[in-house]
């Protein structure tokens, strides 16, 4: 069984918890997720099964993510979200939409962002959150992230709701914290829902509870019906349908000639339409990056 599941993760579960449940439901060991969601967050969690796990990197690192974020103004916390202890509480200044828009403007585009202290990043071989829990304070180095969209949806003091579209590695908690600094009142992330990961949308997601009920009623066929094809991970890549000879060469890891105006990367499909390989253009040929074998599907 190979492909992707678009799971609407419930609050209170880690992303790994979801993987464990899917592994149990499917009876497969090769199960992984494309991009961690904090336990309190809900929404799209992309889960890969079988050979599709080899495509996780393209979902996790090469797609934009979309979030609906509720930010609570007037209070900063140790974790930059509602799970932490309140560090500073302040009265809200008189804010209108124009003032909030002015504070949001510098947070758009390619920006430098300092990750939260309570993060899964490593520092000298240890997770930042493990160091924080041990009482060790480390200032994570800032890093560049990309915020394509940052729009104010609603403001009902002390909560404001943001629609965020961003690249891989962006911390929405840090975005909430930095917005609070810009507004001069402090802030933390009160709630978060991931509404899209690339082509995976929350409108099309299935809850874990519903999936478990379906599998209980119809065993593995329910999972097969819900599985999305592996090529959805690279749906925006140029698609190439191979003939038999080209497919034979690619299966053996050999290059095939490419036109001078070929795209830099393409997904190659066998004559029957199944995804066969990912190819990279070297100036004259397409060379396999990854070749897939779905025979145990």
TrEMBL record:
Pfam families: TruB_C, TruB_C_2, TruB_N. Its EC number is 5.4.99.25. Coiled coil: none annotated. Residues 23-172 form the Pseudouridine synthase II N-terminal domain. The active site is at residue 38. It catalyses: uridine(55) in tRNA = pseudouridine(55) in tRNA. Residues 173-234 form the tRNA pseudouridylate synthase B C-terminal domain. Keywords: Isomerase, tRNA processing. The keyword Isomerase applies. GO terms for molecular function: RNA binding; tRNA pseudouridine(55) synthase activity. One of its GO terms (biological process) is mRNA pseudouridine synthesis. Responsible for synthesis of pseudouridine from uracil-55 in the psi GC loop of transfer RNAs. PANTHER family: PSEUDOURIDYLATE SYNTHASE TRUB1, TRNA-PSEUDOURIDINE SYNTHASE. This is tRNA pseudouridine synthase B. The gene is truB.
